[in-house]
Amino acid sequence: MSHTRTQVFAHLDVPNASLYRRIMNVFMANKRRFVVHLRPEDVAEALRGDGGEPVVQEQVDSALDSLDKWDNLRADPDTGRVTTVEDFYRARYLYQLSREGEAAERALEVFEQELGRRGELQAVALEDIRVRLHALSALKAPPDPAVVHNLLLEIMSRLDSLAANASAFIGGLQRTIDLQDIEEEAFLAYKDRLIAYLERFVSELVVKSFDISDKIQKLTTVEALLRLAAEREAADAAPDEEDPVGLKLVEWRNRWSGLRSWFVGDRARPCQADLLRTRARQAIPDLLATISVLQERRAGRSDRSADFRALARWFAECPTEEDAHRLWRAAFGLASARHLTVEAGEPDGAPSATSWLEGPRAEISVRLRATGSYSRRGAPSKVVNRSKQREELAAFVAAEREQTELARKRLATGRPVLLSELGDLDPMEFRLFLRLLGDGLAAGPGEVTARTSDGSLEVRLRPVDGYAEIRTEDGVLRGPDHELTIIDLSVVPYGG
Fold first, then answer.
1. Triad 447, 449, 453: Cα angle to 5°
2. Domain check: are 43 and 133 in the same one?
3. Does 270 fall in a domain?
4. Are residues 27 and 126 part of one domain?
5. Of 54, 87, 114, which one is at a domain's C-terminal end?
6. pLDDT confidence of 286, banded at 50, 70, 90?
7. Distant-in-sequence, close-in-space partners of 4: CB < 8 Å, separation ≥ 6
8. One Pfam annotation, family name (predicted)?
9. Cα separation of 409 and 490, whole Å?
10. What is the chain's alpha carbon radius of gyration, rounded to the nearest angstrom?
11. What letter does residue 235 receive in the DSSP assignment?
């Protein structure tokens, strides 16, 4: 970008930046009232009424001259009030916003609005998108291009608003959880409303995002509808523009791709709606944890980090090293160990006044170091005979191993079988089945092959059409049907 385009922002980083901003705000306010030209005295009068610091006419004249040099304003000779020859030769100007200056002001307005955006979770936007998708899919052939274009514009506009506000809200919510942009009293005052707000949005998102995803996937005339919108927009394109329909169609395809990625996902790539729902749901326990921490602080419970910070401050305020040593002994209960004795028979060989750093090494028993005495007090413990418990445990392990082997023989046949054809499973068979199914599904979508962690079984999964029901004593497991093959590698060699 050339310097002539960026110099319109030069007034933001100069000593009198506040005065320049006030003057540009005066011109923008008059622009909204369709007032184009302003005289210097008009600007000075407006500044005296904006509540800012008082300024004199000379300051305003100098600032207007600088803004004219930076191309924020355009100065035109003011010949409307010339009555004498002296007035004609005196420099008088009318000022108006330049094209570059107006663009810079509008950019600054957007910048300040985005910084001040609080953000919100727009459940209403979800309903608007759902209703307009329903209207789009219900259009009769041939559809009206104006109706199609307006519906698509409204859908994309609501999606843009939903995405921008959700991003701003989640960012602000994290700062709220960290207590960065809010006082503790204010946080505790509105915590219940915030949690209820999150719960309501999550429930709306679960229901409406599923409906939106279903309508997007069932809409089969997407390409034709996008082309109608592109052709309607291309009708107003400039004459020298090459292939306006193709350019507009690419733009609409990208917008529709963004809409689809927001609401339609799979196991490998979850959609943005699912990610937003997960983050909003996670925020609820995070808020409760923050509330718990605040309640603990108010109840006066000890905070070790706060205690150590206070102790560090006390050490920093100690006037002498002797005072610091006394504080250390008082805080940590440390004193000279003259009462310590060693075990009988250990050589001493050093006077009592010898420093611990210079004295000989003394071996201290583990019991003395842990308990302060050489032997355990009281009667010795009786030895418990646990042979009966060991026999019961061995019998339980053997029975469990036998049940596991029976389950392996039934499931690990090496032949493909549909999940819907497995029939009823006993608890041990169902437990083994769940572990094997989890290993297979964890390998990814589509047709997969995986091994158990011990390498004894190989699982092969291939998705098929339909749903499967597996009945057990604890209930019924339902899900998409798969062709399952379990091979016992301890019996069949690898590659056999």
1. 145
2. no
3. yes
4. no
5. 114
6. confident
7. 71, 100
8. DUF2397
9. 12
10. 39
11. T
d(CA 36, CA 250): 40
| Measured distance CA(280)–CA(260) in Å, rounded | 21
Return the structure tokens found at 151.
């519906």
318 phi-psi bin (left φ>0, alpha ψ -120 to 50, beta other): beta
* 140 and 270 share one domain: yes
> What one-character DSSP code corresponds to residue 7?
G
Q: Looking at the 3D structure of the chain, how many domains does it have?
A: 4
- d(Cα 101, Cα 96) in Å, to the nearest integer? 10
For 28, the domain range is: 3-114
Q: Which two tokens stand for residue 38?
A: 């302003």
Average pLDDT, the chain: 77
| Whole-structure pTM value | 0.43
CATH number at residue 92: 1.10.10.10
* Cis? peptide before 347, omega within 30° of 0: no
Say which range, 2-6, 100-104, 373-377, has the weakest mean pLDDT. Answer: 2-6
pLDDT in tens, 355-399: 777 777 777 777 776 776 666 666 666 777 888 888 888 888 887
Could you give the 3-state DSSP secondary structure of residue 472?
A: strand
Q: Are residues 86 and 138 in the same domain?
A: no
Q: Does residue 123 share a domain with residue 32?
A: no
DSSP H stretches of helix in 120-221: 123-137, 145-177, 184-218
Statement to judge: residues 107 and 231 lie in one domain: no
Tokens representing residue 285 in the block:
């326990």
pLDDT of 495 over the 50 cut = no
Q: What is the mean pLDDT of residues 425-445?
A: 73
- Contacts of residue 38, Cβ cutoff 8 Å, sequence gap at least 6: 26, 27, 30, 94, 95, 96
| Apex 384 CA angle, 380 and 385, nearest 5 | 150
Select from 218, 226, 230, 278 the least CA-distant residue to 257. 226
- Give me the pLDDT at residue 320, please: 92
For the chain, the distance separating the N- and C-terminal CA atoms, rounded to the nearest angstrom, is: 68
Q: Token pair 């002296």 is at which residue?
A: 86
Give the strand pairing for 457-472 and 448-451.
Answer: antiparallel
What H or E segment, with its residue span, contains residue 435?
helix 427-441
Residue 180 pLDDT more than 70?
A: no
